[in-house]
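Re-run with default settings, no changes from the original entry. Doing this only to confirm the output is reproducible before filing.
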Amino acid sequence: MGIFQEINNLFAKKQKIEKEIAILQKSCNHRKKSVKLVRKHLDSASPIIRYVCDECLSVLGYPNQKDTDNFFKE
């Protein structure tokens, strides 16, 4: 098998996994969330602060100023 075919197979697996993750995250109730640093974009090294579900790791939104301040105190 050539490198091109191997890369295509890996991308196909990646797409399948990302789809499975999206389905699981969509079905999650997001009962508990925390303030965490996440990447701004998948290909970015720049972290940003967001609310993240503790169970499915889905990004849920922007924390308020109080939660942001508490995050940096820890």
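Residues 3-73 form one domain. Strands lie at 33-39, 47-53, 59-61.
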